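Structure tokens please, single chain.
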Amino acid sequence: MLHRTKYTLGLDFGTNSARALLVDAADGREISAAVWNYAGGEQGIILDRRDANLARQRPDDYMEGIVRTVQAVLRSARRQSSQFAASAVIGIGVDTTGSTPLPIDRHCRPLAAHQAYARNPHAMAWLWKDHTAHAEAAEITARAARRRPEYLARCGGIYSSEWFWAKLLHCRRVAPAVFQAAHTWVEIADWIPAMLAGISNPAEIRRGICAAGHKAMFHAAWGGYPERAWLHQLDPELARIRDTLPAKAYTAADRAGTLAPAWAKRLGLPAGIPIAAGAFDAHLGAVGAGIRPGTLVKIIGTSTCDMAIEPLKRKLPDIPGLCGIVPESILPGYYGLEAGQSAVGDIFNWFVNQIAPRAGGHRELTRQAEKLGPGTSGLLALDWHNGNRTVLVDQRLTGAILGLTLHTTPAEIYRALVEATAFGARVIMERLEAYGVRIRRIVNCGGIAAKNPMVMQIYADIMNRPLEISRSAQTCALGAAMAAAVAAGKPAGGQAGFGGAVRAMTGTLPDKFRPIPAHVKTYNELFKLYRTIHDGFGRSGARRDYSAIMKTLLAIRDRTGKPPA
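Here you go.
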């Protein structure tokens, strides 16, 4: 009977918008969804024309996003069935971007909520794609390499400007008054569940192992976050923040708290329902896509995140260039492995909106690019328009296109940019496999995966693996809703924990993208050239001879079919 059905809510806070997804807690059936675009800045992002590396967000937008999306999904559910009742919602899960740390006061209020800091971008959330801390990241890497190399070994060997401590250190240097006013800093993945639970003491915020382990050097081997003395050497104020951080971190199966009465009244939900500990969108997106050992989940959006898991009982080596190997950061009982690319959809949008605005948009460029074959444009691009997240971990790298002629068309460049992101994805896959993480299947999710078959076929051909598409178009929100079911103690599929939830609530679409052998052969040739420029431009001290690359591109073009003049 419908009135016996139990539901969970997944709240997904992305780069440009917030969304809510209401699902059947038994089988993952999606009842209703709602999206609200952040109101602040440009497409939800506070930018600075003087500094292209700066990207911040207003914390008020997250709170407004909760209200607008949750109320909308509940209204939609009622319209679908008069028997639906919000009292049947048994839990809430939250995923967010990251690392997106936020400075807060002693009462968990964002500094940006204070009038003195309301317009100060340094007092806002430092969005994942903020790269202002590149110098601080390099300094942290150098100091850890000398004194605490184990810190780096667990996060790929290089600390990134996208991550927690680098952003804090940069704020300390460019906005010391803001830093001094902050009692502590918290990832929004941890802050949003705390707000829903009515927590007003920062010491009571339950911090997720996902954010702490992958972005803030948290590990049980050294007692949690980096030692106070080491942070004090970087800056005494970092040690002060370290004093506010807990010794324990939580998995997505744990509770961050229960829904506070004030929020329950505002949203129209039952007070006291469990709220799962927060996690990053890619991690819960991997859960929503049905991750398991041997599966690589690719969350493809403005950037990409690549997720894999391996059983804790297996001894894994440290893998250079990854965003960490963290116990239980994705699923309890497994190591979570994270990698990714700093820009994918952002590159395509940049070309369409900034470089070729009169070329007809994504749909028309895709239509024309589909007529081309591998190698026929004579072009080869690097996908570093927003730096390199994996495996080079260098945000000071930039994009490039080789092989341009006076006959090159926008569609050829568009396809070359797609191919470049696929080559970058293959580099990540090969790095995982080189260290013993076998990839047998790839599941893709995100808007690009669902909407652009050309992109998926190019990825299948370049990576030489069958590609599947997640059944859900809202995998991150679905993963959050699954965490809510687990935290509520209502197992899906008759099995407690995430095991039953993954089997009962996830799946892939029937159609798969299979590699085309002739395309694979040509792309293997191009990939060798890509690796030459990837390593030559990206690795310090690498010696590469580039003299044959342009001529080889022309030879491949001539063999596969000259592009139209």
